[in-house]
Amino acid sequence: GVVTSFEVMEHVPDPISMLKSIRAILKPDGVFVFSVPNLDDPYCLRQTLPVNIPPIHINFFRRQSMRVALERAGFVTERFATRPIPAASVRNEYGLSGLILRAPMLGVMNLLGKSEGNTLLGMARPRA
For residues 56 and 124, what is the distance between their CA atoms, to the nearest angstrom? Predict the structure, then answer.
């Protein structure tokens, strides 16, 4: 079976308890697939939109902190990936002129493989 959690853990007061509950319902060959805001992306640190900061987002994750949380809950991380910054997010944060000014830089960074997406996607399996 598969359990998914997309853009949820950043809102939960105790994400490790949530992960332990997910682990408890997964069969040994099950998969947990999730997404959270990616604090490895410098853009996430600069966001000031009310929907992206406390009290709405109360947890923030990097690959390393997500890996540790998963391990504490009985998972083994299979892989991580990121999703690029949506243009709408950049426009909401910096306005239309900010989007126009930042778009070339974001495009070049993406082509060079140096960009982090602002969403961290991951897959984990129960530890044997």
Answer: 25
